């Protein structure tokens, strides 16, 4: 399995670390190594068909701020110069245009490569187009880490709950907002709490994406399309963020034994992100940067999961699970996968 990784920020570096930790796991399970044959960041790349050392990639990034040794103009040309089986696309999310990530994913799928991404921009804007390209070219396209980080909401619904009729999913899908609201529960100001979330590295490059609810809306779109088989985009979601939540509103909620949480909801035709009153003790009243999701199905009833919605190793754990799934599928079929 030869991997091309595009994006070497927090998540890309987390994935390189996981490759070091799981080196023996791959050898034992598949009798083959997983090698990174090319790594790109926004301004540089490095490639070697015999495999790059994840340790060296991490060291160079730390020391020089760049993963690669050479510059490039067009990422697609770099991709075409490398022989690889799987693209891991973890460049920064661009909610407005899909950014370089969209271009890279399209190109890899059109070239018949499998793709794993946690990049929310391409998924929120062009989900159905990308799935169609993947199907046409018989490629696997997986994106578990794009929603809820380490919390396996997509695989839970698509694999464990595959025979269920899923009526609704409601969840806390943004750790930054949950962190801010929980800090406000304890008397901290909105501004102070946001600053802390940024310092901890949870907030998006532009924190407006978190606090205005856009990041949660991307995740609602991804869940609606991948689980409810909808054909919706970012503009179909009704979005209210948390910027107008005052300390007074938090205190009033507390006096009724409630908390305010930013909830993403999909049920029937409803696609919504908005602050909601949640009774204290309810599974969606969780605090800190945790994400949580409550799935309601016809046979199983309500199922709630919770986990770390962001973070270097946590998000990389979701990429690992997608990678194992793709490799299992190849092993079963003795070669290239047949379905999504
Ligand atoms: N900014 C996001 C959050 C990161 O706070 O949840 C994970 O998508």
Per-chain topology:
Blueprint: E1 2-6, H1 10-21, H2 23-30, E2 35-40, E3 45-52, H3 54-64, H4 75-80, E4 86-89, H5 99-110, E5 114-117, H6 120-136, E6 141-142, H7 153-160, E7 166-172, H8 175-185, H9 190-199, H10 208-211, H11 214-227, E8 238-239, H12 247-255, E9 258-267, E10 270-279, E11 290-297, E12 301-308, H13 312-333
Parallel strand pairs: 1-2, 1-4, 4-5, 5-6, 8-10
Antiparallel strand pairs: 2-3, 7-9, 7-11, 9-10, 11-12
The structure holds L-homoserine.
The ligands bound in this entry are: L-homoserine
CATH architecture field of the largest domain: 3-Layer(aba) Sandwich
Q: Globular, elongated, flat, extended or rod-shaped: what is the shape? A: globular
CATH fold descriptor of the largest domain? Rossmann fold
At the fourth level of CATH, the homologous superfamily of the largest domain is NAD(P)-binding Rossmann-like Domain
Strand order of the largest sheet: 3-2-1-4-5-6
- Helix/strand order, N-terminal first: EHHEEHHEHEHEHEHHHHEHEEEEH
Oligomer: single chain
Write a structural description.
- By secondary structure, the protein is α/β, with parallel strands linked by helices.
- It folds into two domains: 2-150 and 313-333, 3-Layer(aba) Sandwich (Rossmann fold); 153-308, Dihydrodipicolinate Reductase, domain 2 (2-Layer Sandwich), CATH 3.30.360.
- The chain is built from 13 helices and twelve strands.
- The protein has a six-stranded mixed sheet with strand order 3-2-1-4-5-6, with helices on both faces. A six-stranded mixed sheet has the order 8-10-9-7-11-12.
- A hairpin with a 2-residue loop joins strand 9 and strand 10 (270-279).
- 46% of the residues are buried.
- The mean pLDDT is 95.
- Residues 149, 174-176, 202-204, 210, 215, 309-310 line the site of L-homoserine.
């Amino acid at each position: 399995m030869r991997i091309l990784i595009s994006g070497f920020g927090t998540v890309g570096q987390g994935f390189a670390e996981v490759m070091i930790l799981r080196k023996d796991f791959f050898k034992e399970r598949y009798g083959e190594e997983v090698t990174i044959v090319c790594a790109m960041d926004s301004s540089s790349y490095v490639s070697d068909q015999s495999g790059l050392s994840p340790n060296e990639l991490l060291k160079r990034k730390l020391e020089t701020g760049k993963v690669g040794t050479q510059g490039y103009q067009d990422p697609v040309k770099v991709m075409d110069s490398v022989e690889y089986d799987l693209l891991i696309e973890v460049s920064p999310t661009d909610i407005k245009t899909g950014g370089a990530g969209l271009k890279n994913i399209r190109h890899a799928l059109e070239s018949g490569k499998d793709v794993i991404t946690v990049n929310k921009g391409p998924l929120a804007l062009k989900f159905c187009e990308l799935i169609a390209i993947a199907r046409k070219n018989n490629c696997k396209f997986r994106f578990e880490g794009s929603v809820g980080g380490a919390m396996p909401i997509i695989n839970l619904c698509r694999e464990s709950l595959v025979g269920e009729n899923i009526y609704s999913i409601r969840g806390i899908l943004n750790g930054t907002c949950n962190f801010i609201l929980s800090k406000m529960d304890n008397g901290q100001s909105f501004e102070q709490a946001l600053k802390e979330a940024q310092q901890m590295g949870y907030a998006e490059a532009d924190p407006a994406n978190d606090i205005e609810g856009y990041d949660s809306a991307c995740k609602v779109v991804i869940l609606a399309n991948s689980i409810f088989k909808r054909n919706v985009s970012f503009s179909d979601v009704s979005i209210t963020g948390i910027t107008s939540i005052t300390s007074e509103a938090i205190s009033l909620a507390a006096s009724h034994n409630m908390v305010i949480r930013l909830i993403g909801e999909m049920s029937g035709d409803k696609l919504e992100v908005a602050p909601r009153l949640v009774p204290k003790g309810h599974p969606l009243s969780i605090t800190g940067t945790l994400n949580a999701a409550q799935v309601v199905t016809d046979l199983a009833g309500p199922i709630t999961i919770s986990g770390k919605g962001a973070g270097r190793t946590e998000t990389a754990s979701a990429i690992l699970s997608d990678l194992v799934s793709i490799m299992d599928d190849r092993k079963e079929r003795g070669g290239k996968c047949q379905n999504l």
